[in-house]
Write the structure tokens for this entry.
Amino acid sequence: MRDATCTVRGPVALTRLRGLPPSCPASDRRRSSSPVTPSPQVALVAQRLGFTYASGAGLKPADLALASGETAAVEGPSGSGKSTLLALLGLILTPSTGSLAISGTDTGSLTPSERDLLRRREIGIVLQDLGLLTFLNAWENVAAAFGPRFGRHRGVARDLLGDLGMGELVDRPVAELSGGQRQRVAVARAAVKRPVLVLADEPTSGLDPKNADLVKGALRACAAQGAAVLLVTHDRGIAETCDRRYALDEGVLSPVSSVSNASSASMENARTDNARKEKLG
Ligand SMILES: Nc1ncnc2c1ncn2[C@@H]1O[C@H](COP(=O)(O)OP(=O)(O)OP(=O)(O)O)[C@@H](O)[C@H]1O
């Protein structure tokens, strides 16, 4: 079983974040030292993490921990808070309560620009609206994850799109791609920097089985390379392959512990989360 408990290293990790030269993303350093070996480090720890909209809806205080290389699926009905959870974990929303550490950095102690920097360097996100740049072509959208001087990342962007069955469409303007093709571009963009954390909102919705399998393969590859991967999904097939499963209902996040084919590891993780919740009251 992976041990996903950790101590949040506020000041030390913050120094590390500030000390990174702009030309050397943390993900690149990981790649150069160990291209495929998963790191045992903790990628994400959320404690009593919550958010309340003016309407009163949102996410009730939730605990969640993911180790590098671990995958998690979050399922729940419309309006249950899935996108809110993803926006919190992706540092898009600032929590109303609780704490969130990404890769050992306590995000609550960061300035807005440091949060942006941490998000750009360590997190890959596939949002529901995808957020692609329609004036760029497919590979440019993927490479744009590296920032304004993205041309030097042309090769890796094109290769990744090829892995996703988009080899013949790499030069096609995004405006001329189908919804499913755009979805694969968004997944490639989230994965291309080998982030510590990959978040995806319904990454296989609208895809035919063959292309859904390509997307699942790309996300599995992210985990194999050491990313923690958290998906919001209604796809039972993809959820059942994840190390952990969670249900969200009316803003309450709970581990799913009665999954028929869940591995003993994920069952144990669910029990650990429950125990942690009880401890925290
Ligand atoms: N900007 C907002 N202001 C007020 N309430 C909001 C806002 N955004 C979302 N909500 C409410 O918060 C709750 C959770 O919304 P959220 O979008 O996280 O749900 P979801 O599970 O992602 O839904 P879906 O599956 O339909 O995308 C809902 O009741 C929603 O109406």
Strands lie at 42-52, 58-67, 71-75, 97-102, 105-106, 123-126, 197-201, 228-232, 244-249, 252-255. The longest strand covers residues 42-52. The domain at 42-135+196-255 is CATH 3.40.50.300 (Rossmann fold). Confidence is low (pLDDT under 50) at residues 1-39, 258-281.
